[in-house]
Design a protein that fits this description.
By secondary structure, the chain is mainly beta. The chain is built from 3 helices and 11 strands; from the N terminus they run ββββββββββαααβ. It has helices at about 140-145, 150, 155-170, and strands spanning about 1-5, 15-20, 25-35, 40-45, 50, 60-65, 70, 75, 95-100, 125, 170-175. The strands form 2 sheets. A 6-stranded antiparallel β-sheet has the order 9-2-3-4-5-11. The protein has a 5-stranded antiparallel β-sheet with strand order 8-7-6-1-10. It starts with a strand and ends in a 19-residue tail after the last strand. One of its GO terms (biological process) is glucan metabolic process.
């Protein structure tokens, strides 16, 4: 899947794409909150906020592979399967959803900047949607086999380096370090995710 965000000044316009288990809250979700010069990416599955200093409005620069998210070929979010540690990971039939909506009351620093409606319409484009996976009626244990390509695919050395660099330079909030919010560190924070 490749995503092209609305161009022009689209601060307050929220574009999302996610895959979610029906009837469950396990999902891989990306939400792009568009600012004048910055994409702010919020992930409600893990509570991270990162500011990206690159835009994907001129080309299809955002793409998703195996619940990993890339912008301009750089990994910005990696969801590792840590279900053996009790950390949620998709295992049931899933559906994909994409939305574009008005988030001006909260998406621009609590509504400090309103949507410039003279720049509408705001159009997000999604291209190259393709799914590989186990049939939903299949035994989920077989879906975890290392013989299946998606279970053994990992970031290359250069992608791993780029991912760590992007996180260290662009992440502005990490709920794993928010001791005011959590007395005990959430389980998924205890290891590199």
């Amino acid at each position: 899947m490749r995503i092209k965000l609305p161009n022009k000044d689209s601060a307050g316009v929220v574009t999302t794409f996610y895959v979610i288990e029906k009837g469950n809250h396990t999902y891989c979700k990306q939400m792009y909150l568009q600012m004048v010069l910055v994409i702010e990416k919020k992930e409600f599955n893990f509570g991270l906020i990162q500011q990206q200093t690159f835009m994907s409005t001129q080309s299809y620069g955002i793409h998703i592979t195996l619940c990993n998210f890339f912008v301009d070929e750089m990994p910005i979010r990696v969801y590792k399967n840590k279900s053996h540690r009790g950390i949620g990971y998709p295992t049931q039939p899933m559906q994909s959803e994409a939305t574009i909506w008005n988030g001006e009351s909260w998406a621009t620093e609590n509504g400090s900047e309103k949507i410039n409606w003279s720049n509408s319409p705001f159009i997000a484009q999604f291209q190259g949607f393709n799914i590989e996976g186990c049939p939903s009626n299949n035994n989920s244990l077989n879906c975890n086999s290392t013989k299946l390509g998606w279970n053994s695919k990992k970031l290359t050395h250069n992608q791993e380096k780029s991912y760590k660099d992007i996180r260290s330079k662009n992440m502005i909030y990490d709920y794993c370090k928010d001791t005011n919010r959590f007395q005990n560190i959430p389980l998924e924070c205890s290891s590199d995710y």
